[in-house]
Design a protein that fits this description.
The protein is α+β, with helices and mostly antiparallel strands and 140 residues long. The chain is built from two helices and eight strands.
């Protein structure tokens, strides 16, 4: 299945559809059923104890799956998360970007299922793993 939206297309879409969070993410790479998304860590992403907050990591994983789905199906602003499981495995580095490596496992007409591994940039072991399901709106 060919990629329908490039990193540039996705970035422009996010600027129009989600201007409130568009600047929180940088798309590093888009491939068939894959996407690499970066979150530059700022003070707003931190929690007490000098680590990145869980909600920030959830946002990164959720956005990575969303963008991977859109890369494959085209701009569908109403695709929504229907299920999420998130495992926190290691304390992320507060002074490094977080990087999400996303892989879509299934892309059907109605549902998409994907996995995301989140890393502190430059550190070998993942800090979190997410499994998510997205509902794709019907074509009209």
């Amino acid at each position: 299945m060919p990629v329908k939206m490039s990193a540039e297309d996705l970035t422009e879409f996010m600027a129009r559809a989600f201007p409130q969070v568009n600047e929180d993410f940088i798309i590093d790479a888009v491939g068939e059923m894959t996407l690499r998304l970066r979150m530059p860590i700022a003070h707003k992403h931190l929690r007490p104890g000098g680590t990145v907050s869980g909600p920030s990591m959830f946002a990164l994983a959720d956005c990575a799956i969303y963008l991977a789905v859109l890369a494959m199906i085209g701009p569908q602003a109403l695709a929504v998360t229907t299920n999420c499981s998130l495992d926190f495995m290691r304390k992320p580095a507060a002074d490094r970007d977080l990087v999400a490596e996303c892989k879509l496992l299934k892309l059907g007409r109605v549902l998409a299922v994907g996995d995301v591994l989140i890393y502190s940039d430059g550190v070998a072991g993942p800090v979190a793993r997410a499994s998510m399901t997205y509902s794709i709106p019907p074509q009209r």
